User: Fold these one by one.
Assistant:
Number 1:
Amino acid sequence: MSERQAPVDPAATAIQDLYPEEFAWCYGCGRRNSEGHRLKSYWDGDRTVARFTPQPYHLAVPGFVSGGLLASLVDCHATGTASAAADRAAGHPYGVGPLPRFVTASLRVEYLRPTPLGPELVLYGRAVSLSERKVTVEVSLHAGETQTVRGEVLCALLPASMAEHSAPGRAEPDPAGRRS
Amino acid sequence: MSERQAPVDPAATAIQDLYPEEFAWCYGCGRRNSEGHRLKSYWDGDRTVARFTPQPYHLAVPGFVSGGLLASLVDCHATGTASAAADRAAGHPYGVGPLPRFVTASLRVEYLRPTPLGPELVLYGRAVSLSERKVTVEVSLHAGETQTVRGEVLCALLPASMAEHSAPGRAEPDPAGRRS
């Protein structure tokens, strides 16, 4: 095994940091997106975990977090979980080679109770069914001791039609650019 | 009818612009949130419509819009539709008095095909079932001629427990503030 491919500590290296360079731009979790949320998900035993503290502007009504932001966190944590779970199921040790990139086919989010704005939020993910190209992930989101959100996400391996803009020689995105 | 309460043109005044001042902070659609997406939804016959052009940083992978952002647009367009539909069902002419504020109880989003980043997106909403405190809204999202997303959202009237931080005398949010 080459030095470049040495396995890494799953609790220290985020799943999203193992996405291929050309697929690391996601608004929710891409390490290369300077304007995004940059969610980071980690293996934690047989589940995944992510922590995120919303900004003051991430509100729904005063005192509570936007449901759209919460859906976005569930979405990215789920696709990250799918990616790492599919790679593990293929027999690869964590951290060796880039992870396969999954996207969302469908998303269901239940807002069990309002999520307070202020505390760090913790998301857990678990792959509950898995094939080579599709992974179903269950996500729970917690504020302190209280679960406030439940999510179920059907993730699909990135289709070839979505990879075309990432081919070598294509211009890279400019996340900091603004439309006029 | 006083001048202040004169009905307004539903095609010219956004639903979100009729939310009460204290509930107009939403990250997705609040007119008072300087850091948010500021989605605007309008009545258009018996349905609602919203138009939104994602920024270059709202991407999933290069060339395509983030599924989390799309969920957020569906969410805010649905709660806006619920608000206006409930108000209409109560017999109020559009634009008279503040609209009731709805929040999301559950959200289902199906990504029918990838949504290209670049064109203006158009969302349509329709209230398909309605009671005094709950409205189910179906949303479709289109890029040009192509529907790319289907959403179904169960909206609930803002519960009293979520209004407590908006009571008179409470400090207003500071969306532009950042956590250290």
Number 2:
Amino acid sequence: MKIGWIGTGVMGFSMAGHLIDGGHDIYVFNRTKEKAEGLLARGAIWCDSPFDVAFSTDILFTIIGLPSDVEEVYFGEKGILSSRPACSIVVDMTTTRPGLSRAISRKAVELGLESLDAPVSGGDIGARDASLAIMVGGKESVFNEVVPIFRLMGKNIFYMGGPGAGQHTKMCNQILVAGTMIGVCESLIYAAGLGLDREAVIEVIGKGAASSWSINNLGPRIVRGEYDTGFFVEHFIKDMGIALEEASAAGVSLPGLALVQQLYVAVKAQGHGRSGTQALYLALKALSEKS
Amino acid sequence: MKIGWIGTGVMGFSMAGHLIDGGHDIYVFNRTKEKAEGLLARGAIWCDSPFDVAFSTDILFTIIGLPSDVEEVYFGEKGILSSRPACSIVVDMTTTRPGLSRAISRKAVELGLESLDAPVSGGDIGARDASLAIMVGGKESVFNEVVPIFRLMGKNIFYMGGPGAGQHTKMCNQILVAGTMIGVCESLIYAAGLGLDREAVIEVIGKGAASSWSINNLGPRIVRGEYDTGFFVEHFIKDMGIALEEASAAGVSLPGLALVQQLYVAVKAQGHGRSGTQALYLALKALSEKS
């Protein structure tokens, strides 16, 4: 199948690679062409604009940065939906505003094609190992059609409801991560402040009713002072911002998320926008240090 | 060995039972004698006061309610340490103030005996299955002496440091649970408010980087509206209060824990002091409902 791919960053590069391995013809566009070179070397075909991709393929995937980038790629000049493309399905795998997913869906229908929102979780490792969780919104019949391609990129693939439902599910994931992370970081800052061996603490509390992926995987990074790798703080702030906006619009109060998001704003202000989410520990540390 | 046991509530009753199964002679006291009957029927010997227990045994365990109860049992009239007892080691397994554990330790030393603080996690199920995590503070040599008895009650047994270190470790556990629970409940209240199937959401987000014991075990209870069982809200409020006090005294700021504790105060005010901790969902629900 002729598959379009827009966005060859850390996630998209690995994901598109799996489609090449799956025997598909890949047509690719990225704002920075250099980041697509590795795919071109493996036979992917370069296109000069998002619309060119849409015009050359049967189905098209996007995974890019901010909601504003998604808007540009879909609705801008030479955007995917700037006029009627050749492809019959567009799938946005970016974590973005559910309202934007619905806008893409409406415009797609207008032009006679179908769309899905399909954000992922699992990070760079999940992208590389093709073990991503993929949360999908849109028409179920379209979902069923695309599932074989999703299977090349992910393991846990879920249909969650109409347009935007994939994004809302990703927001649930991020809200859960936010709470867990404040628990992880406050627990370890308490341990440090009260003179406990933090490695031993993680070993104890990481097993029972307090256990989580975060305490067992990010806790040890905090103990070792490793803040460079992981999901970027600035991306997490964006996601939490979307969740707070959506929740507010729906009349849902999320006091915990609001607090955590503000603490992450502090983490970014301290110069850690491109650190991993475990850098929340540093903001809490700064709170309790003499200045 | 002649072992004393004070406190035959949900936890203590099961734990003392394992010691009987282990072939030990158990001397028991509880404020409400009826709750000890099942142990007496299995051969445990009743004592009329905490001091009587201490006077009849080689080593003594306590697991009771509030810090004030612990104070009464150790320091009150006919308390364990009201004069020199026969036993050579006292072990408090209650989750209590680390300062109280240190006070017990000082008084014990004064009277020529040893003490450990050894709070547990794992709940009623862990107590029943003898699979508790046990976090121990005190002298390491004393810990090593008591380990064979701990092994009858728990699986993950950890020496954490001097007097109070067991309690501090339990506080780390509770701080981590508090954060995780706000994440779980806000995630599911968002899912409900935005029209997602919460069961499906748990299935998706319960597997990857957002996964935790809480989302996978308490999340489904929330979906089913089951708030009756689990760790009592009022006990959790007590524990979080201790952690906040200790942290404050050590100059450690825990904004997330403070918020969660206050939300749990609301849960209790709503009449759910004896519900499970997943009842936090109800306070968040009340926040977003028309009144």
